[in-house]
Design a protein that fits this description.
This protein has a single domain, classed as Alpha-Beta Barrel (TIM Barrel). It contains ten helices and nine strands. The strands form two sheets. It has a seven-stranded parallel β-sheet with strand order 1-2-3-4-5-6-8. Strands 7-9 form a two-stranded antiparallel sheet. It comes from Ruminococcus flavefaciens.
Length: 314
C-alpha cells in the first residue's frame, strides 16, 4: 500500500501532476488550446432533460472563442500560446464547451481532423458525457487514438445518485460506468472530472467518491471546488441559503485525503479550478489559485502523506 512520496519530487509535489506526466513521457511542457464547437447537451436540449447541470454556465465556454469556426479558434489560440511561450510551443486542442461527442459523426470528424492537421497541435482532448458514446463515435475515437495523443474527459462529479439527481446530470452512475468502460476497454486515455463541495455532500461522501475513482483506475482525474456562477440554478439555491460551501481549509483537507486513496499512477490534471471571475459569486477564496495550491502542498507535508499512500487494488 502506498508509494515513495518523492516519486514526483522533480515536480516538487507529492502527487502526480500533469506537468510531471508530460515531462516524463514527452520531455517537454505541453499547453492547451480551448475550442468551442457550439454543441449542446442531452440535459439541455430536452432529449434527457432541460436546464443543464445546476452549476453549468455555458459549459466553460467563457474560455473559448466560440463565435468563430474551429480553424479560426485554433489560430487565435496558437497566437496566444506562441506569443507567450515561443513559436515552437506545442499544445493540445481541447474541445471543452458542453458535450463534444453529441453531434453527427461527420461533423465531429471534420472538427477533430482540422485540429489534428493544424500546426503545433500535439494531441486532442475531448470533453463529453459517458452516455454520448454511440458506436459510430467510438469508431472515430479509436481511429483518432491510433493517430495522436488522445484524451477523453468525462464528467463524473460524484458517485452518489442523490447528488447526481440533484445536480440534474440526467445520467446515473451506472450509465456513467458503462460509458467509461467503453473507453477504458478500448485503450483510450480517459480523464474523470470530480467536484468537491456539491450541495449536501459530507466529507465522507467526497471520500467515497475518491474510493470509487480508485476502483475505476482512470488514467487521469480533475478535482475542483464547486463554483457558484451568476445566472445558474445553483446561484439561486445559494442565494436562498439552501446549502453551505466548503471553506478553503476544509477543501484542502478533503483533497489531501482524496489523494491518499487514488492510484499513484493516476495523473492529477487539475487540483483546483478556474471560474469566470466576472461571474463568480462564491467561494471567492477559489480565485486565489496560488494560495490553494500552496495550501495543498503544505497540508500533504504536514500530514506526511502523498498520492496513493492508502491506495489498495482490492
Amino acid at each position: 500500500m502506498g508509494n515513495n512520496p518523492f516519486k514526483y519530487s522533480n515536480d516538487n509535489k507529492r502527487y502526480n501532476t500533469l506537468n510531471y506526466y508530460n515531462k516524463q513521457n514527452f520531455g517537454k511542457k505541453i499547453y492547451k488550446a480551448v475550442i468551442d464547437l457550439g454543441l449542446t447537451c442531452p440535459n439541455i436540449d430536452g432529449s434527457k432533460g432541460t436546464g443543464g447541470c445546476i452549476f453549468c454556465d455555458g459549459g466553460s465556454g467563457y474560455f473559448t472563442h466560440g463565435e468563430v469556426d474551429t480553424e479560426a479558434q485554433l489560430r487565435l489560440e496558437k497566437n496566444r500560446i506562441c506569443s507567450k511561450y515561443g513559436e515552437s510551443a506545442e499544445f493540445i486542442a481541447y474541445f471543452q464547451a458542453n458535450t463534444n461527442t453529441y453531434s453527427p459523426v461527420e461533423l465531429l470528424r471534420k472538427a477533430y481532423y482540422t485540429a489534428l492537421e493544424f500546426p503545433n497541435v500535439f494531441g486532442i482532448s475531448i470533453g463529453t458525457r459517458a452516455d454520448c458514446l454511440p458506436d459510430d463515435i467510438m469508431v472515430l475515437l479509436k481511429e483518432l487514438n491510433s493517430k495522436t495523443h488522445l484524451t477523453v474527459e468525462l464528467g463524473m462529479q460524484s458517485c452518489h445518485e442523490n447528488t447526481i439527481s440533484l445536480i440534474n446530470r440526467c445520467c446515473s452512475h451506472e450509465e456513467f460506468k458503462k460509458g467509461y468502460y467503453k473507453l477504458k476497454n478500448t485503450g483510450i486515455r480517459t480523464c474523470l472530472h470530480v467536484i468537491n463541495g456539491l450541495p449536501y455532500e459530507s466529507k465522507d461522501d467526497m471520500l467515497e467518491t475518491a474510493k470509487e475513482l480508485a476502483l475505476l483506475r482512470p488514467d487521469a482525474v480533475k478535482l475542483q471546488m464547486l463554483h457558484v456562477i451568476k445566472g445558474t440554478k445553483l446561484a439561486d439555491m445559494y442565494s436562498n441559503g439552501e446549502f453551505k460551501l466548503l471553506e478553503r481549509d476544509e477543501y484542502i483537507d478533503i483533497i489531501a485525503h482524496q489523494l491518499e486513496l487514488l492510484p499513484p499512477e493516476t495523473v492529477i490534471e487539475r487540483i483546483t479550478g478556474d471560474g469566470d471571475k466576472s461571474k463568480l459569486i462564491a467561494p471567492m477564496w477559489s480565485a486565489d489559485k496560488i494560495a490553494v495550491l500552496g495550501g495543498i502542498d503544505k497540508c500533504l507535508a504536514e500530514l506526511d502523506t502523498w498520492q496513493g499512500k492508502l491506495y489498495s487494488e482490492t
